[in-house]
Amino acid sequence: MQACHRLxxxxxxxxxxxxxxxxxxxxxxxxxDQALAxxxxxxxATEKRVRELRAEGEKLHRQDKxxxxxxxxxxxxKLLKIE
Length: 83
Prior knowledge:
Helix 1 runs antiparallel to helix 2 (44-62). The protein is built from three helices and no strands. It has helices at residues 2-38, 44-62, 66-80.
């Protein structure tokens, strides 16, 4: 029984990064949406690519592939030149 009590904090610490990634995806999508709404001089091809990447990121997020989603959303943010 004592071994379980020692493992619980370790398991929680191992899961925390995954939970943090999961909650970061919607924030990143929101940042992209805000930047798209404010973008005035974005060319059509770049805007299309950003929207594709944003959609792909959301799809990956819904599939619980948060690491992949963050990479895709990061690519969209780079095109928009936002952090």
